[in-house]
Design a protein that fits this description.
- By secondary structure, this protein is an alpha/beta fold.
- The protein is 39% helix and 13% strand.
- It starts with a helix and ends with a helix.
- The protein has a single domain, classed as Alpha-Beta Complex (Amidase signature (AS) enzymes), CATH 3.90.1300.
- The mean pLDDT is 97.
- Strand 7, helix 7 and strand 8 form a beta-alpha-beta unit.
- Bound molecules: glutamine.
- Glutamine (GLN) binds next to loops.
- GO terms for molecular function: ATP binding; glutaminyl-tRNA synthase (glutamine-hydrolyzing) activity; transferase activity.
- It catalyses: L-glutamyl-tRNA(Gln) + L-glutamine + ATP + H2O = L-glutaminyl-tRNA(Gln) + L-glutamate + ADP + phosphate + H(+).
- InterPro entries: Amidase, Amidase_CS, Amidase_dom, AS_sf, GatA.
Length: 453
């Protein structure tokens, strides 16, 4: 098929299904068809094409896209049209990928269900009464419903892996520093990382390859060689040492989910991996420390939304402080406001030592736990999410919602790569297996995931 036919196919699919699923905030048919046409013309001229040229993709709406509205699902950015592309977007544009549109998320990527979107919730394609997970729920639902073959998301505490698990697809958070964050609307800068969604590990590897590598515009993006991820998918995992941290099968993890993951671990053992139980004793502290560090960074990052520079500006206000106050009051949702308050408090002079410093110290201990485990193991295996997809409205308590990320948050705290691959069903709903790797060793995770699927 031509790139234009392929784009048309997906645009028709979006038109038919998205009224029910609501994965997209913005669909960009003109953009998509123009990009596809350019690829078809290149092919007609017999110019060399990237393997992903002409392939459609959906982009999470916190990735800046030149000339295309980018909202982070916040009312405060309802009319923001960036004058530049995020680095990952620029790279995909360059190789000729076709942009179908921008996908829904929890406002500023704060949440685990996409219910915190400032516009509307997204529904899980497996059961429209359930959430797709979050915060990249729109991207995950789009791929699961075949409204896009591939998508990009961002993951600060699980926002790629958890929705991938809940929607039955593959999702990867690369190592912190592997992919440029330039042009990603910042939530918590020391934890954020952009990554791929796909239906297979091989597709995931191909997309990761396209977005990885050094970028002078993001000083935390390291200048390391990007390995050949696709070439590493040999199907061979004999002798690889896999650790199973017992803390990830404890309280809160639904027994049926544990069972599905244990079964997947058996499959890996039958493929020749050497499996052994291990312990990461600081696991229990990760969630609490994360909910100091992430809000602290968000309170600083979100200070730029002042009603002056871009986005919403309140209609009625008195004085310049009043303008900012009114705009932020009208533009931010409840969850975002709560986090700004918590973060500002944790960073204030009198409480800095008690909260922020302790959280950072805890973070160091978490990383050391992982470092110690990786002296013995090539990768760790856990559930991605403690439960399958829950019902829309079921987790009204914000604390309960935050428990959805117990298995994924430690990985961000340590800056490690994590891959979620589907590993069966519980009551007809998909469950995910999480593979955690050494820093910058995405290759091993992809190899294991590919051998498993
Ligand atoms: N659910 C977590 C949070 O709300 C993680 C979100 C994310 O990874 N962006 O912070």
């Amino acid at each position: 098929v031509s790139a234009q036919e392929l784009a048309t196919l997906f645009l028709e699919r979006i038109e038919a299904l998205d009224p029910h699923i609501q994965a997209y905030l913005t669909v960009t048919p003109e953009e998509a068809l123009a990009q596809a046409k350019a690829v078809d013309e290149k092919r007609a001229r017999k110019e060399p094409l990237h393997p992903l040229a002409g392939i459609p993709i959906a982009l999470k709406d916190n990735l800046c896209t030149r000339g295309i509205r980018t909202t982070a699902a916040s009312k405060i950015l309802y009319n923001f049209v960036p004058p530049y592309d995020a680095t990952v977007v620029a790279r995909l544009r360059e190789i000729g990928m076709v942009f179908l549109g921008k996908t829904n998320l929890d406002e500023f990527a704060m949440g685990s269900s996409t219910e915190n979107s400032g516009f509307r919730p997204t529904r899980n394609p497996w059961d429209l009464e359930r959430v797709p997970g979050g915060s990249s729920g729109g991207s995950a639902a789009a791929v699961a419903a075949a409204e896009a073959p591939l998508a990009l998301g961002s993951d600060t505490g699980g926002s790629i892996r958890q929705p991938a698990a809940l929607c039955g697809i593959v999702g990867m958070k690369p190592t912190y520093g592997r992919v440029s964050r330039y042009g990603l609307i910042a939530y918590a800068s020391s934890l954020d990382q952009i990554g791929p969604f796909a239906r297979t590990v091989a597709d995931c590897a191909l997309l990761l390859q396209a977005i990885s590598g050094h970028d002078p515009l993001d000083s935390t993006c390291l200048n390391l060689e990007v390995p050949d991820y696709v070439g590493a998918l040999t199907g061979e995992i004999k002798g690889l040492r896999l650790g199973v941290p017992k803390e990830y099968f404890g309280v809160g993890v639904q027994p049926e989910v544990s069972a599905a993951v244990q079964q997947a671990i058996e499959v890996l053992a039958n493929l020749g991996a050497v499996v052994e139980e291990c312990s990461l004793p600081t696991t229990d502290y990760a969630l609490a420390a994360y909910y100091i560090i992430a809000p602290a960074e968000c309170s600083s990052n979100l200070a730029r939304f002042d009603g002056v520079r871009y986005g919403l500006r309140s209609k009625e206000w008195v004085g310049h402080i009043g303008l900012t106050e009114k705009t932020r009051d009208e533009g931010f949702g409840t969850e975002v406001k709560q986090r700004i308050v918590v973060g500002t408090y944790a960073l204030s002079a009198g409480y800095y030592d008690a909260y922020y410093r302790r959280a950072q110290q805890t973070r160091t201990l978490i990383r050391r736990d992982f470092d110690r485990a990786f002296e013995r193991f090539d990768a760790l295996v856990t559930p991605t999410s403690p439960t399958p997809a829950f019902r829309i409205g079921e987790k009204a308590d914000p604390l309960e919602m935050k428990l959805a990320d117990v298995c994924t948050i430690p990985v961000n705290m340590a800056g490690l790569p994590g891959l979620s691959v589907p590993c069966g069903f519980v009551n007809g709903l998909p469950v995910g297996l999480q593979l955690i790797g050494k820093p910058f060793d995405e290759t091993t995770l992809l190899r294991i995931g590919h051998a498993y699927e």
